Amino acid sequence: MISSAVCQPALDQFMEEIQSGADTPHSKGPRMTHNDKYLEIWKLQKAYPTPNGSPAVIVEDFTLNVAEGEFVSVIGHSGCGKSTVLSMIAGLSQPTGGGIVLAGREIVDAGPDRGVVFQAPCLLPWMTALQNVTLGVEQVAPGKSRAEQREVAAHYLELVGLGDSLDVHPNQLSGGMRQRVGIARAFALSPKMLLLDEPFGMLDSLTRLELQQVLIDLWASDRKTALMITHDVDEALFLSDRIVMMTNGPAARVGEILEVTLPRPRDRQTVFEHPDYEQLRGRLMSFLEERANHPPLPAQPSGHEHHLPTMTAAAVNSSKSLRRSLSRSFLRLSGFSNRVT
User: Is this prediction's pTM over 0.70?
Assistant: First the structure.
């Protein structure tokens, strides 16, 4: 059993070395700095051959820039190609058109500079929680001693609330605890970017809410650039700086992008009660229900911003009442009833 006390100087040195940007076989090109375009996706396309000779185009002309330290969610109907986009950014699937650049280097393959959290945590069952996380650390810091690698892994497991479960195997952990291990493993790599593919989609509602708070608190500690795939409107609003809304497939692309104006740091009750919350939620729902099947809005001339339709006062009040009722129920069940007014 490793001690819960982590050698902070050794941990800090580890992070500096990993984040220094050593060349890897998974990226190519000269080192560049684009803080406002840390991730650049340009005219991304994914198509598959078909027996009739006409390719099935899943994603087409998907263009997006993500700033360093930004948390962006991608939302859309099932089958629109959200996870396809993420798999191409992760290097797990090759695009058939366009390109992806991360921190000034073109993505050509999978690599530890992108930490991926899948819907299922994909843990090795014969390894403990600590060993599962340490395995990733070994790949990015092979020159470190075994003790230093274990210290880093233990540090992130403690941050996600598993400090007392380091030596427990996955079959002894609940679904939520296994996903905590997956989150810790991704952060322990100290990647340039986090990629989250519906990380809470298989969890019950209460566990999902709890882990959303764990994720946002952990992310806030170093503002790692993050892109998350989700179906959940409220999850996207709670976690994100911007929300990318994809059109329906085939040939899905960016439809609209919503700036989330909710202040940080965030907790669920404050977010639900913020005066902008219902308007933002209404804009997302309006796109998904009315405009996802339509082509993207044309570019507006400089100085002319397109304004999404707003909800009526009656709709806002009705929706707000429902959301507050649901939030009270969730918070009571989660043990936070003393914070509900």
Answer: yes
